[in-house]
Amino acid sequence: MKQINLNKPIYDLWKEDPGIIDVMLELGFHDITKKGALNTAGRVMTLEKGARMKGITLDTIMEYFKRKGYIIQS
């Protein structure tokens, strides 16, 4: 199974598993695909911070990633 740490920058998560961006898109994180976003904001933005900005509960994100085959690390 793939592992994901919600406190790790999205850029780092993407480097470890490029498929994570597809899961994020399904969750509504469309801004991450904008040109340059991954290399700028993605270096400091975490899934936890992004969830707060988007108004998505962390529980929702964790459950979705689990359904997609990820193990959540804290």
Explain what the structure shows.
This protein has a single domain, classed as SP0561-like (Orthogonal Bundle), CATH 1.10.3910.10. Helix content is 45%, strand content 11%. The protein contains 4 helices and 2 strands. With 74 residues, the chain is mostly helical. The protein is globular and about 30 Å long. The chain starts with a strand and ends with a strand. The mean pLDDT is 94.
Give a short overview.
The chain is mainly alpha-helical and 74 residues long. The chain has helices spanning 10-16, 20-27, 47-54, 58-67; strands at residues 2-5, 70-73. The protein has one domain (2-73): SP0561-like.
Produce the secondary structure layout.
Elements: E1 2-5, H1 10-16, H2 20-27, H3 47-54, H4 58-67, E2 70-73
Parallel strand pairs: 1-2
Q: Notable features of this structure?
A:
single chain, mainly alpha, SP0561-like, two-stranded parallel sheet, 74 residues, 4 helices
- Beginning-to-end CA distance, first to last residue: 16 Å
- Helix-strand string: EHHHHE
**CATH fold group:** SP0561-like
How helical, in percent, are the residues? 40-55%
**Level-1 CATH class name:** Mainly Alpha
